[in-house]
Amino acid sequence: MQVYRIAEMNIAVEARYEYTKEYLADYATDSSDYELEVHISDKMIEHERQLNLEIHGDEASVALCEIVAVLRVICDHIIRRSGFFLHCSCLRIDDSAVIFTAPSGTGKSTHAALWRRHFGDRVAMINDDKPLVREKNGKFIIYGTPWNGKHRIGNNISAPIRAVFFLEQAPENSAEPLDAFTALSLLLRQTVLPSDRNDMTLLLDMLGRMLESVPMYRLRCNISDEAVRTAYNAMIQSDNQ
Predict the structure, then answer these.
(1) Are 38 and 70 in contact (CB under 8 A)?
(2) Which of 49, 163, 180, 207 is least surrounded, with the fewest CB atoms within 10 Å of its CB?
(3) 94-121: pLDDT as tens digits
(4) What SS3 state is found at 104?
């Protein structure tokens, strides 16, 4: 088995397919110590194939299903390690992370690309699809993972979260702070909800603490540099309050 270092966790994966090894390669480590051992069964792969059929209308390859199944196991595990999965595009700017989240197709990747173009070398992509978040010493840190979207945009880096923007397409740009109830509802739509009641309590408690420490905004935006400035200025104003 190969051990991978993901979100400060050593995870051993017994990959059945070469594609899985290649997919996870950037996170491989020489360590022989690990806290989680992942074995993917035929039943787990079939479960992912059926889900993909229901959601996307086609049957994914068994190799791709193994990759998704590995992530699902990690999502279950990280809840008990003060962490959770978040469907988003996130980047690092000036040593802190900015998150853009919304349902698929809203424009998360497009908005992150606008930030990269606008700010240049100040920005590094953390993950363009499926990063992991952990609560560490009172801060919420977001980590790159191998699951970084169809264009494989991301890096094996991390940063404390500075702001979360929930995107909505609009002709005009505006950013407004969200109340805790609305922000929690939107966050829950973009994570994996555990089936275990105790794990669900852990997740809700974590998200509650995150809402107290990280500014959340509804960002109505178009595809322009003004959209970037609107979000960035809202973040700076929050820092100064």
Answers:
(1) yes
(2) 180
(3) 999 999 999 888 889 999 999 999 999 9
(4) coil
CA distances from 114 to 17, 36, 162, 196, 222 (A): 36, 37, 18, 39, 11
Full-model pTM: 0.95
Other beta carbons within 10 angstroms of residue 25's beta carbon come to 11
Question: How much is the average pLDDT of 6-17?
Answer: 97
Question: What are the contacts of 121-125 at 24+ separation with CB within 8 A?
Answer: 122/93, 122/94, 123/91, 123/92, 123/93, 124/91, 124/92, 124/155, 124/157, 125/90, 125/91, 125/92, 125/153, 125/154, 125/155
Match domain 83-239 to its CATH number in 3.40.50.150, 3.40.50.300, 3.30.750.24, 3.90.228.20.
3.90.228.20
Token couple for 12: 């051993």
Single-letter amino acid code for the residue at 207:
L
* Tens digits of residue pLDDT in 212-230: 999 999 999 999 999 999 9
| Site of tokens 């590995």 | 70
